[in-house]
Amino acid sequence: KARSRSRPDEAPIKTTEAQRQYSKVAFAVAAYATCSASMLIVNKLCITYLPAPTVVLFLQLSFTAVAIRAMTHYGIVDADPLDMEKAKPFVLVALAFLGALYTNVKTLQYANVETFIVFRCSTPCLIAVLDYVFLGRAMPNLKSWMSLGAIVCGAVTYVSFDADFEVRAYGWVLAWYLVFAFDQIYIKYAVDQSSLSVWGRTYYMNALAVVPVSVMGLLSGESSAVSRGGLTREDEAYQWGWAGFCALTASCVAGVVMSYSAMQLRGMISATSFTVVGTMCKIATVVVNCLIWDKHASFGGLAALFICLFAGLGYEQSPLRTPQVTTKPTVGSDKG
Predict the structure, then answer these.
(1) Tens digit of each residue's pLDDT (9 = 90 or more) over 115-161
(2) Residues 6 or more apart from 80 whose CB is under 8 A from it?
(3) Quick one: which of 194, 191, 199, 176 has its CA closest to 98?
(4) Nearest residue to 69 (alpha-carbon basis) of 58, 81, 53, 56
(5) Are 278 and 127 in contact (CB under 8 A)?
(6) 49 to each of 13, 62, 87, 214, 254, how far by Cα in Å?
(7) What is the pLDDT of residue 312?
(8) How far apart are CA 100 and CA 30, in angstroms?
(9) For every residue of 85-124, which 3-state class applies, written as one string?
């Protein structure tokens, strides 16, 4: 009897908790969507004014790592200090993160924004399969598959309309595609297993990526080219100016918010849902891109792109097939 009397009281508690969790996820989605949509434009501006993607990435990653450490020092955020034992499992996370960022920036350097976005629209299909194979999710239901299929159809239609695809861009898009798939799946796995705070995971990922991107900058010659003013664009000689400085500063600040919001959202939803959210928010990028750049798609191409973006609204997150029981030590946990 005592147990039956307690049941009516449990329902409001569960409902309130569910509403609170839903609010958290909704806020995280809104924050990530805003950052993701704006970050693509900011990066495009950065590469336009400073055509050295490796240098841009080095400055963004360094700024994010230093900013998080400074905010932790002053008690604004709580990020775990860098520890070699905890850092070991996150080296691959940092490399995946860096690889996705670098191939993203290189793609934007050699192609218009729509070219990148249309391939971005086709990634949820691949991630859904990988989610099933590696992360224990069920396969999407019929409605979700139709949604993802419509995204791919929109992408194919876009290709038939838009002739502004560059041969060099295809190679970088393919590289980004493969790295992005690994990034989505492995980082989701690491986040689910990690005992670090959200700010801690963000700090580790950015700080550990600084060294390899520094090496890339030295090997590519971009660092020395920037220091001696030897960079050139296709149509004119490169000159550093106030506009470039402002774009770079904005990208560094946006990078901090983007890194945190992405890491937070990864821990709340599935890898496929995370990919779909990132794809849907690009609609704002398309609108802004049409207003800023003269290198945008035709009306038919944009119509197809709108179709593949809005088709993702019909996607529903797949549940876990079975409850996951973790027997391995968590990533970043202490042995003691």
Answers:
(1) 677 778 889 999 999 999 999 999 999 999 999 999 888 877 877 77
(2) 86, 196, 197, 199, 200, 203, 204, 332
(3) 176
(4) 81
(5) no
(6) 54, 20, 34, 20, 17
(7) 80
(8) 22
(9) HHHCCHHHHHHHHHHHHHHHHHHHHHCCHHHHHHHHHHHH
How many whole angstroms separate alpha carbon 297 and alpha carbon 118?
Answer: 11
CB neighbour burial string for 99-113, b if at least 16 within 10 angstroms, e if fewer: bbbbbbbbbbbbbbb
CA 193 to each of CA 190, 249, 297, 327, 328: distance values in angstroms, whole numbers, following the listed order: 5, 34, 42, 10, 9
* Tokens (6 digits) for 41: 């434009």
Residue appearing with tokens 């890898």: 271
Residues in the chain predicted with pLDDT less than 50, given as ranges, are 1-4, 6, 167, 234-236, 325-336
156-176 burial, b at 16+ Cβ within 10 Å, e below that, comes to ebbeebbeeeeeebeebbebb
Structure tokens at 167: 């041969």
Q: Is the dihedral of CA 290, 284, 181, 46 positive or negative?
A: positive
